[in-house]
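Schema walkthrough. Field components (list of strings):
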Amino acid sequence: MLGLNKKDFGLLCLVTFMAAAAPILLNPFPETSTLSFLNAGYPALMQLFAIFGIVLIGFNILFGLTGYLSFGHAAFIGIGSYTAMWMYKLLNFNVIISIPMAMFVTGIFAVLIGWICLRRTGIYFSILTLAFAEMAYRLSYSVLTPITGGETNLSPDPINDPMILKGENGLTVPHLFGFDLNAKYVAEVGNWSFTFEAGYYLCALVLVLSFYLSIRVFRSPFGMMLRAIKANNHRMGYTGLNPKPYMLAAFVISGLYAGLGGGLLVAMDAQAGAERMFWTESGTIVIMSILGGAGTLLGPILGAGAIKYMEKILSSISESQLHSWLSILPDGLEDFLVYILANFFVGHAWHLTLGLVFMLVVIFVPGGLVELGQRVASRFRRKGSEDALVSKETPAE
Amino acid sequence: MAILQVKGINKRFGGLQALGDVNLSVEENSVHAIIGPNGAGKSTLLNVLVGKLIPDSGSVMFDGQSVLGRKPHEINQLGISRVFQTPEIFGDLTVFENVMIPCFAKRDGAFKMNGIGDVKKEKDILEQAEAILDDVSMLDKRHMHSASLSRGDKRRLEMAMCLVQEPRLLLLDEPTAGMARADTNNTIDLLKEIHEKRDITMAIIEHDMHVVFSLAERITVLAQGTPLVEETPENIKGHPKVREAYLGEAQV
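Field assembly_structure (string):
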């Protein structure tokens, strides 16, 4: 189906279903429950899941398949964002222009940066990419201020910007051929409320397409060459293959995905700032990739989702919420637990939780959340088959 | 006819003359061994032949084309394949994938962007890979992770990866180094079979005299970076210059 084998097609269906049903699946707790705070099914967060899922799918083609660790991918997100923003300012707010242009311009930068960085391998490659990203970040705060807006960020100005394609009464928010991406439909079902937003569904559609393309790349001769580079770069040359253009292609593809992510970020929220390119952002991409499972198909989406969830939900849990959840415990214990959790694990201290989770994953399941899932599944399967074995043997006895 | 013609190669590393005026010609369809004591410059010579090192002067012609200054993948595409001292394979990939990659290299050249096609639908590649694995009797191990193969099987796999490209010249760098006697004999048989079945020209760099004398049709003895003699195996045995190189100056 669609050029995929049965298993891959199943995965694609799964991702499509999850993306389509996310507003419902991610809102398991009714509005009235004290746990409703853990719901992630609101548009702003779901957009981030999808967008970072897309960026990570691209990053996975580079890091997961070839093993080349780029520490500068946030720069491509930033370049994509700025490009999309300038499309709004110069032309109009139609994302059908801004997103492809974001990819195009990011692609040009990826060719140049990749061409230089790929002269080296291993840690030197990583450092070179980091250097480029830092350069992009610093420059956008200094000499490039006319283009990037510097500290004040870049946002559209409907009065002074040319916007030559906008027309007389054109929309001044991101839209798709006049269809406002902020349009939403809220469904109230009992105590639950589900929000279906046009912007999120645009991201979800792009996510599914990106995922589909990445499956094709994984199964293609090109994907096989990339895995061969990871396995033994040295042997490639002596097998008559030139690793350079393969690497550059992988780098540019991953750059295009990041540019696409940047363009989508600006399509969801029309402003772009340089903090998107800071090196910790690039670091987060690497962590998401490893947490989810580098080199696996689903890993990027899981990693991006897990970290964005922690970043948004864990970080905003307050002490009073903890009190309300733990109120069944005896008073002394409750206060003690709330003190520990609030000061070390949630709220402003959520990074510690992330760090612990990351450590546990790297130590115990180096293959990331995907491997964790596979292990759990195989444990259940083994148990199942053992039961079957026992039941088969019993009558014989 | 000489398929590989090496003329006047010099290579210095600082004060060390690693290769001094090396002349060598390998005849088509022959097995040519290059032997010599440690430090004779055998590996340096091999690295020049595959494009890893660029000599200070001299020329290397393969089938009428200069090899010097070309990248390893270009030299391979000319038809020179190399087998390494320790087998170099794609350890993370399966045995079958390992042989598919050179098949792609042969069919599509050094680079071809095909990010949409499905590897499993490349019929001709699959057939070729299967045939070569059958030839080296590894078909039963096709789904194995190649890193977990035994040393002898890794060598076999590497050989298969070279053979499937149908090279015109196969360079072997101590193909039996570090092998037990039984594995060594297996490798010798494998090489003999390859040579007889496929008429591939081979240049072998080797330490082990047993291997050299079982395979080679011509032998070049290298000592201190210069070729001493080039002879048939019968004439090499007991050649005074060779004894001298291996055992030191004859005492008077």
